[in-house]
Amino acid sequence: MTDKLNLTEAEWLEKLGPEKYQILRQAGTERAFTGEYDGNKAQGMYKCAGCGAPLFSSDTKYNSGSGWPSYYQPLDPDAVDELVDRAHGMVRTEVRCAKCEGHLGHVFPDGPAPTGLRYCINSASLDFEEKDD
Ligand code: FE
């Protein structure tokens, strides 16, 4: 998981388009209840919209009522990086993709069992791949 994807800012903007660029590369936040995956209940894998790395399984997704897709844990602890974020007068824990360092969202200590964590993730930072069986 340590092979980093490094692009220039111009290359990211070209690859992602302005909306996803603003969230993934400039730590933006989509408006609550507007994202594509908030209400998605299908089984499958949520991958990084920046680099395609698998990040969250639908098995750990739950309805937090926050208006953003929420998971109680990442697919693998090494799939994401967690950093202290002191922006906007708050101390929060930012969640980034470990491979491309794209901003995903934040993690809060008010989630359900078994972890008690809520990974609150922007839909725009994710690409969903439905499981076909
Ligand atoms: Fe990524």
**Major beta-sheet overview:** 6 strands, antiparallel
What is the name of the CATH topology?
Metal Binding Protein, Guanine Nucleotide Exchange Factor, Chain A
H/E series: HEEEEEEEEE
CATH superfamily label: Peptide methionine sulfoxide reductase
Q: Which ions and ligands are bound to the chains?
A: fe (iii) ion
- Can you list the strand order of the major beta sheet? 3-4-8-7-6-5
Rg, alpha carbons: 14 Å
Q: How are the SSEs placed, and which strands pair?
A:
Layout: H1 9-24, E1 44-48, E2 54-57, E3 61-62, E4 70-71, E5 80-85, E6 92-97, E7 103-108, E8 118-121, E9 126-130
Antiparallel strand pairs: 1-2, 1-9, 3-4, 4-8, 5-6, 6-7, 7-8
The structure holds fe (iii) ion.
Short account of what is shown:
With 133 residues, the protein is an alpha+beta fold. It is built from one helix and nine strands; from the N terminus they run H-E-E-E-E-E-E-E-E-E.
Describe the fold and architecture.
The protein is of the alpha+beta class. It has one domain: Peptide methionine sulfoxide reductase (Metal Binding Protein, Guanine Nucleotide Exchange Factor, Chain A), CATH 2.170.150.20. The protein has one helix and nine strands; from the N terminus they run H-E-E-E-E-E-E-E-E-E. The protein has a six-stranded antiparallel beta sheet with strand order 3-4-8-7-6-5, with no helix packed on it. It has a three-stranded antiparallel beta sheet with strand order 2-1-9, with no helix packed on it. A hairpin with a 6-residue loop joins strand 5 and strand 6. The mean pLDDT is about 95. The structure holds fe (iii) ion (FE). The site of fe (iii) ion has 8 residues, from loops.
